[in-house]
Design brief:
It comes from Roseinatronobacter monicus. This is Response regulatory domain-containing protein. It is a single chain. This protein is an alpha/beta fold and 128 residues long. It has a single domain, classed as 3-Layer(aba) Sandwich (Rossmann fold), CATH 3.40.50.2300. A six-stranded parallel sheet has the order 2-1-3-4-5-6. β1, α1 and β2 form a beta-alpha-beta unit.
Length: 128
C-alpha cells in the first residue's frame, strides 16, 4: 500500500514549499491540488488500497465543514490541517488544527506533530 499526503493550496509556490516540507518529514508521496474540486478528482483516481495519511487544505472552516472533501478525507481517516487567513469567533470549531497566515515551517511541523500527541477539539495554531 502506497502512502500519500494531500496539499490543497491555491498558490502554487506555497503548495510546492509545503509539499517539499512534508515530503522531507517522510509523510509519503505528495498530491498537490490547487482547489477542492481538483483534490476530489485526485482522490477518486487513487488506487483502492492507497492511504492518504495527512492533508493540508486551504479553506475556511465554514467552507470545509460541509464539503465533499471533508467527507472523503474523514472516510480515509486522513489527519487534516486547515490553512486559513482570517479566523473569526463565528467559524465552526472543527477537530482539526488550523494554521493561520503567515505561518512558518515550524508551525507546519508542529501542526503535523499534534496528531502524534493528544490534542483538544478545535485547537487553533499559527504564527503571530
Amino acid at each position: 500500500m502506497q502512502k500519500f499526503f494531500l496539499v490543497c493550496v491555491n498558490v502554487p509556490l506555497v503548495a510546492k514549499d509545503i509539499s517539499t516540507t512534508l515530503e522531507q518529514l517522510g509523510l509519503g508521496v505528495p498530491l498537490v491540488a490547487g482547489s477542492i474540486d481538483e483534490a476530489m478528482v485526485m482522490l477518486t483516481q487513487l488506487p483502492i488500497d492507497a492511504r492518504v495519511a495527512y492533508a493540508l487544505v486551504q479553506a475556511a472552516p465554514e467552507e470545509f465543514a460541509p464539503s465533499a472533501l471533508r467527507t472523503a478525507l474523514d472516510g480515509l481517516k486522513t489527519k487534516t490541517v486547515l490553512l486559513h487567513d482570517n479566523l473569526s469567533p463565528t467559524d465552526p470549531v472543527l477537530d482539526y488544527p488550523v494554521l493561520t497566515l503567515p505561518f512558518f515551517t515550524e508551525d507546519l511541523e508542529g501542526a503535523i506533530a499534534s496528531f502524534r500527541a493528544p490534542h483538544k477539539s478545535g485547537r487553533r495554531c499559527g504564527a503571530s
